[in-house]
Amino acid sequence: AILLPLILVVGWAVVALSRPPAKDAPLKVPVGIMKSMRMMASPEAPWWYLQLRETLGSSIFQHNIPAPGGMYVVCASKHQREVLLDRTSDKLLHMYSSFDTIMGHKSMFTSSTLDPCCRHMRKAVAHSLSSSEVDRMNSICTKYVKEWETNFLEKLADTDATFDP
Q: Keywords assigned by UniProt (predicted)?
């Protein structure tokens, strides 16, 4: 009784993974399913995504996780903003609803983008991804990095001390 569903799942995974990508499909992450899942759940995930962006030379790429429609990552604020503001983009709720039972409630992750609550969240986040806000934060971050270099790193270099974050 369990053999048939198992065969169907394995067959679906083989077909999904062996299908050639479309010509304009994003690049695939050069690691396996288990490492992708482990890294996605780790605290280092944001830095791993930035490293992948530089390694692959693309800010949009696909995980090797056999999910219907694929699992994509967008590492550019311009593209993230486009997705957030696109009124025709919505989540496939049948894919995300299983997470509701794990969390015990609906969240932004599992809500439809057409949900009025999600609309308010989108409006709140869209400003932080605007080009003027990103430029403003870039200049602020640059200022603090330069202060850190001057006040901390140069003093360490003068004393021949080591820096171990």
A: Signal
CA dist., res. 33 & res. 17, Å (int): 11
- Edge-to-edge strands, sheet with 72-74: 27-28, 60-62, 72-74
Burial class (CB in 10 A: 0-12, 13-18, 19+), 5: exposed
The kind and range of the H/E element at 18 are helix 3-18
pLDDT, tens digit, 9 for 90 and up, residues 92-122: 666 667 667 766 777 766 777 777 777 777 7
Whether residue 110 contacts residue 96, with contact meaning beta carbons closer than 8 Å, is answered with yes
The C-alpha atoms of residue 69 and residue 161 are separated, in whole angstroms, by 51
- Please report, as a single letter, which amino acid is at residue 143: K
The domain limits of the chain are 1-75
Rounded Cα–Cα distance for residues 120 and 69 (Å)? 27
SS (H, E, C) 77-101: HHHHHHHHHCCCCCCCHHHHHHHHH
Predicted TM-score (pTM) above 0.70: no
